[in-house]
Structures are given as structure tokens and as C-alpha cells.
Amino acid sequence: MATLDEIRRIAEVEFASIVTDAEVMGVKLRIILTDTSYVDVWVSKKLENRFGFHWERGHLDGTIYRYDNFPDTDWKHISTYPFHFHNGAQDAVEAPSFSQDVIQGFRDFMGFVEAKMVGGG
User: Are 105 and 99 in contact (CB under 8 A)?
Assistant: First the structure.
């Protein structure tokens, strides 16, 4: 099972150009980014491959991005259910293009974050 410490190392090493700090805070990992936004990571200790990655940008431009696989029945119509992606807003939900594996999914999600930050869009 993936651990927050393992994900923290990936963030700090592989995404060092956009990560300024990463700290385990109880049941989640908070990753502070160079633009003052942050990514919160939650990985279940009981359920294999259950996770959530949330990029909070509300204070910058009002957006949020979240990739998770919590079985929220509101998103049952998404083809990849329970995997779903909140693309900019809580109700803007679509099928994700990220891996369903926790570690690769985190890398994919952070690649998306990095591309948005560097490319500005």
C-alpha cells in the first residue's frame, strides 16, 4: 500500500520545481506549491488503492481540482466511476485521464498541476 511518506518523497524530488514544502498532517499530506496554492493528499490505510488528491486554488482564482475514487453516487454516470476528476469546480466532474494506481495517479495529477502552473492554463 502506498504511504504518505512515499508520496511526499515523490513530490519533493520529482516535482521540486513547483514544490516548496510537504508535510504529513495527521491523515493527510499537504504539499505547498511555489504559487502559494497547495495539494492535499489522502490515502486510505484500510482500503487498498483508495485515495484523493485535491489542488486548492480558491484564494488565487477560485478554482479547485480534485482526483479521487470515493464512491460518490452523484458521479455514478462517469464512465470511470468511482474514479472521477473535479476540473476547476466541485460540480465540474468528468472522467479522469490519470492512472487509477495511487502512485502513478499521483504522478499524473502532479504533472497536470505542474503543466497548469508553468503553462498558465
Answer: yes
